[in-house]
Amino acid sequence: MKIIRIVTLLSICLFCWNCKKENQNINFSQIILMDKFSNKLKVDFANKLTTSEISPLYIGKISENITISYQTRETVRKTETYKEYKLPIKNSLEIFVDTTRIIGIPMGIYEYSKEGKRNDKIANPIFIKNRSKDTLNIGYAEYLPIIIEAKNRNGKWQPIQERMRFMCGNGIIDFYCPPENIVISAMQKYGGNFKTKLRLKYESFGSKSSIYSNEINGKINEKQFVK
User: Fold this and answer.
1) Phi, psi dihedral angles at 179 (to 5 degrees)
2) 8 A C-beta contact, residue 104 and residue 35
3) How far apart are alpha carbons 81 and 142 in whole angstroms?
4) Cβ atoms within 10 Å, residue 41
5) Are 104 and 118 in contact (CB under 8 A)?
6) Could you give the CA distance from residue 141 to residue 123 in angstroms, rounded to a whole number?
7) How far apart are CA 202 and CA 97, in angstroms?
């Protein structure tokens, strides 16, 4: 009987290990994103440099089915910390913008939704994976230190957004992402008459290391280069 129990425990452990390994090998495109909202979305237009409000819709382990939440305050609260974890450096994060799928974005900083509704702007999902062996400090308050950059007519990368900044830092708490976990966010889609390449730039405050996403095709208004 004792031998049977040992064999059973070993089988369970092996099964769990295989499941964990399979989840780690899941490609971002294989993840099914479940969004409970279905309000109509539209492309946004801007005529100046805007403030980035890129927030996490999910922080956790990789799985085949993930429910995203536009209540970013609740998403962040699960991983808030006063502990000083390491900041991301080059190659510690993988950032991928999936242009094959459409999701929404959370309500803006001056908007409020008790139900955590999504805004009416079109966005593409952003997948961010912690590829390091360390738990990383990846954001502050409800925001990720990410902006959108675009190539100008001279082929030079320029920001079309600036990072969210607060007048006072009191009460602002950082949040983290454990190793092999992912963050899912949203990259707002803009319209305009200037076709160009776009990418995301991640750069923590106090860090000299910038991390970039894949490049995607997009449209903007050239006035977005100007503050």
Assistant:
1) -60, 145
2) yes
3) 13
4) 18
5) yes
6) 21
7) 13
Q: What does the block give as tokens for 130?
A: 């912690």
Separation between Cα atoms, residue 108 and residue 68, nearest integer Å: 17
pLDDT in tens, 20-71: 444 556 899 899 999 999 899 999 999 999 999 999 999 999 999 999 999 9
Q: Helices marked H in 66-114 — which ranges?
A: 72-77
Query: What residues have CB less than 8 Å from 95, skipping those under 6 apart?
Result: 126, 127, 128, 200, 202, 211, 212, 213, 214
Distances (CA, A) of 203 to 35, 89, 108, 148, 211: 28, 9, 21, 12, 7
The answer to whether 39 touches 117, Cβ cutoff 8 Å, is yes
The residue among 170 and 159 whose pLDDT is bigger is 159
What's the mean per-residue pLDDT of the chain? 86
Q: Please state, in angstroms and rounded to a whole number, the distance separating the CA atoms of residues 212 and 187.
A: 13
Whole-model pTM?
0.86
User: Could you tell me the sign of the dihedral formed by the alpha carbons of 46, 156, 29, 182, in that order?
Assistant: negative
Give the integer Cα–Cα distance in Å for 173 and 193: 39
pLDDT higher than 80, residue 166:
no
On whether the CB atoms of residues 160 and 49 are closer than 8 A, the answer is yes
Confidence band, pLDDT 50/70/90 cuts, at residue 3: low
